[in-house]
């Protein structure tokens, strides 16, 4: 019976990882990933979805059997409606068709010319393929969505900066926002590398990732602040290592639990949430990495103040423990 209530440890609680001593390795890796992301964004760019570049997104499904993607591409290319992309999804009986934004004419405005292009696509599908849904975004709306998406990300980062600054000190706020910017920038760079579609659902995932990542970072910072007050004379490197190791089990297990749920969405979810789930999954990994290996080293770089309002407490050591034991023995006699 005792074993049944003991529980299971999936991650050790008494780790002694020397993370701060190896901070240059971790920060160097982060800089390398950030530079690679910057190069990709400047040279390759992003594969913007319909939300950001306008056009139509048509989801189709075969009534029976599968969809011959190659034959479908050939038929749609003959329509003369510009760039048309066909992507197979699911088990092969579904596909996504992306129709580029059509140029309005003297007789037809943006909406009508796009609707005419969609009608041509539906006519070329054949009797065995049904249209499940159609999304149409005009160029004006797509430009507005792109602008508001950038504003949303920047505003969230600024809000987080103010929150951490108010709760801790400016050193903590700057370290947290640098670690968070690191997560967002590398996640966007991964979308450029893999050429995954970047749409509004990905922006939503990035905003969710920002909140998730800062939560992990704040937990580590909370423990650092507690230890700064508790161990007045402990060297800062040793104190940061102690704080990270004390919260390491919680950080890793929380991230793994969330990643498993998002992984199920990525594997079994539809194409509509594929970009969202991938951004969340990769963001959880890079966010956990930054909370453990990047945020605290930035604190060491900027320096942190110690709270001298309470009595000084030495860092625990074998000699202190032995001396305390001798004093207790003398007192008992």
Describe this structure in words.
The chain is an alpha+beta fold and 333 residues long. It has two domains: 20-45 and 142-302, Multidrug efflux transporter AcrB transmembrane domain (Multidrug efflux transporter AcrB transmembrane fold, Up-down Bundle), CATH 1.20.1640; 55-137, 2-Layer Sandwich (Alpha-Beta Plaits), CATH 3.30.70.3400. The protein is built from eleven helices and six strands. It has helices at 23-43, 50-53, 69-77, 110-124, 139-167, 170-194, 200-230, 236-268, 274-293, 295-302, 318-332, and strands spanning 47-48, 55-62, 84-89, 94-99, 129-137, 197-198. The strands form two sheets. Strands 3-4-2-5 form a four-stranded antiparallel sheet. Strands 1-6 form a two-stranded parallel ribbon. The radius of gyration is 27 Å and the shape is elongated.
Please write the string of helix (H) and strand (E) elements: HEHEHEEHEHHEHHHHH
Uncertain residue segments: 1-5, 308-333
| Count of domain modules | 2
Query: pLDDT average, as an integer?
Result: 78
Terminal-residue CA separation: 41 Å
Radius of gyration, Cα only, in angstroms? Answer: 27 Å
